[in-house]
Amino acid sequence: MTRGSAPTNPFQYGALALDQAFTDREAEIAELSADVRNGQDVVVFAPRRYGKSSLIWRVVQRLVKRGVLVGQIDLMSTPTREKFAERLAKTIHDEMASRLFKAKERLAVFSGLRVTPTITVNPDDGSISFSFDARAARADIDATLEELFALPGRIGADRGRRAALVFDEFQEVVEIDPGLPKLMRSAFQEQPEVAHVYLGSKRHMMERIFNDANEPFWRSAKQMELGVIDPAAFEPWVLERFEQTGKRLSADALARAFEITRGHPYATQELFYFLWGQTSAGATAGVDQLELALEGTLRSENAHFGLLWDSLAAAQRLVLLALADEQPGHPLTSDFQRRHSLPTTPTVQTALGALVRAELITRRGRGEYTIAEPFLAEWLRRR
Question: Which residues have a Cβ under 8 Å from the Cβ of 211 and sit 6 or more positions away?
Answer without folding.
Answer: 218, 219
